[in-house]
Amino acid sequence: MAKGRDNWLLTPSAMGEVDAAAAASGIDSFGLMEKAGQAVAAAVLRLFPGGERFVVLCGPGNNGGDGYVAARALRAAGAAVAVFHLGDPAKLKGDAATARSHCPIPGEPLETWRPAEGDVIVDAIFGAGLARAVPPVVADVVRRVDEAGLPVVAVDLPSGIDGRTGAVMGAAFRAHHTVTFMTRKPGHLLLPGRLYCGTVETFDIGIPFRLVEAKDERLFVNGPQEWRTSMPTADAAAHKFRRGHLTVFSGPATATGAARLAAAAGLRAGAGLVTVVSPTEAAAANAAHLTAVMLKAVDTESDLADYLRDERRATFVLGPGFGVGPKARAFVAALAAACRHLVLDADGISAFAEDPKALFSAFADGAPRLVLTPHEGEFARLFPDLAADPALSKVDRARQAAARANAAVVYKGADSVIAAADGRAVINENAPASLATAGSGDVLAGIIGGLLAQGVPAFEAAAAGVWLHGEAACRAGASLTAETLINHIDRWH
Question: What does the pLDDT look like over 12-21, one tens digit per residue?
């Protein structure tokens, strides 16, 4: 995967190892804390130049040390500053103790803080490393800040957000802005944590990036840098068969629209030919709406076997509007036996709720050629044990699901996670709220299918499809529908 500060993600534990490696290499660790605290102070002054009082809330660890540095820098800039501490500051150790000793502002116990008009809060209590519920005194301060409507600048991550999972640990500050260091953490992107961070600024405090790279967790922010080298390129010799044939299965006459949305999206994403395979009784309904997309009647497993004799028909989307039942399972089994590539969505996923192992075993061999696109409920039907495990993050669940299914998994949501069977994963961040509309998932399945048809590997097709889907939604605007969304899909060049 691509290397770079903008797309890199590290869990809090890995970032702690990077900090330790920097110190072991001879880098002055207090110098790093000094840079972090100064960066926080600069952000606070830039964002709130008219703040009447800057209230710095310092915790019992290195996040608190960053806060003491920020408080000193704010005072040096001429601002009115107050410091409140959690616990006994005399028990601070290492760099945090040094930072406090250099801070000229006497602190007061956290529980004594009371909001005042014009206060700007600098949250330096816990940061990204919290993995337990916040103590009652912090929960009470969070409540008072919320009630007073005071702006918060968070250091590393709003206190109360788990940096690994994005979970709220009892209570959490809702920051206007968050300053983090070297890389973002999963909790900056995963819900609900993302909603608490405000804008996020990543500041380079001077740790050599090779030390970050050494803690590669194969987790990145989704974007072109993760899949651009796998995308198809057009040349003068290209023709429709070289650009791949995508087949989308239609449901019955009363449920044909979803398949047509997926088919149109696949064509727009670059597949050279797209066919809607339809039950005979739904053929007229589909024919009335299809132009560049072809139509073929297929009713039985025997009909499908005939259709599969043409090996150019290599990529399929099954699920949108298809119906849940034995037909879906039989068709998937036929595609697996014929070594076809498949995007399994919606009803196609739910069809295996009673026997997920039948699906996984059908695609167990060889390089992944299955893409699963479950939302939260569908994920729980295929992977009930993973969905029910509170210790797992969304990234953990997606990775384990992908390994179990030998598939690329798109664990959908506003914080979609795309995982590969080999452990790679990306978190998507470009999807606007307007995508929460009927049919948008069918469009996504079609985009991924269109990329698969052009020879893009399963994980890269899934990750690129999710990103292109989000970009199309941004271009379509807040009033998008699934139909208008398709017109804004831009093929990757």
Answer: 999 999 999 9
**pLDDT range class, residue 130, cuts 50, 70, 90:** confident
Distances (CA, A) of 311 to 1, 114, 341, 389, 407: 32, 72, 11, 42, 22
Look over the chain and give the mean of its residue pLDDT values, rounded to a whole number.
96
410: β partners? 418
> Among 188, 206, 190, 207, which residue's Cα sits nearest to residue 198?
188
Question: Tokens 């179990």 appear where?
Answer: 404
Q: In what order do the strands lie in the sheet with 425-427?
A: 219-221, 425-427, 417-419, 408-411, 370-372, 341-344, 315-318, 245-249, 273-278, 294-297
Q: Indicate the annotated binding residues for AMP.
A: 412-416, 441
**Mean pLDDT confidence for 270-275:** 97
Q: Extract the annotated binding site for K(+).
A: 63, 123, 159
CATH of 224-486, one of 1.20.1050.40, 3.20.20.60, 3.40.1190.20, 3.90.1150.10: 3.40.1190.20
pLDDT (tens digit per residue) in 196-249: 999 999 999 999 999 999 999 999 999 999 999 999 886 655 555 678 999 999
Token pair 């290397």 in the structure block, residue = 3
Helix (H) / strand (E) element for 221: namely strand 219-221
Q: Identify the CATH assignment for 12-216 out of 3.40.50.300, 3.10.450.50, 3.40.50.10260, 2.60.120.260.
A: 3.40.50.10260
Pairing mode, if any, of strands 417-419 and 408-411? antiparallel
Residues within the annotated binding site? 62-66, 123, 127-133, 156, 159, 258, 321, 375, 412-416, 441-442
What residues pair up with 371 in beta bridges, in sequence order?
343, 408
How many other β-carbons are positioned within 10 Å of the β-carbon of residue 18? 21
DSSP-assigned states of every residue in 79-120: --EEEEESS-GGG--HHHHHHHHH--SPEEEGGG----TTEE
Q: For the chain, what are the domain ranges?
A: 12-216, 224-486
Residue 44 clears pLDDT 80, i.e. is over it: yes
Q: Which residues are CB-contacts of 339 (< 8 A; sequence separation ≥ 6)? A: 366, 369
Using the CB atoms, write b or e for 277-304: b if 16+ within 10 Å: bbbeebbebbeeebeebebbbbeeeeeb
pLDDT at res. 233: 81
Binding residues for (6S)-NADPHX: 62-66, 127-133, 156, 258, 321, 375, 442
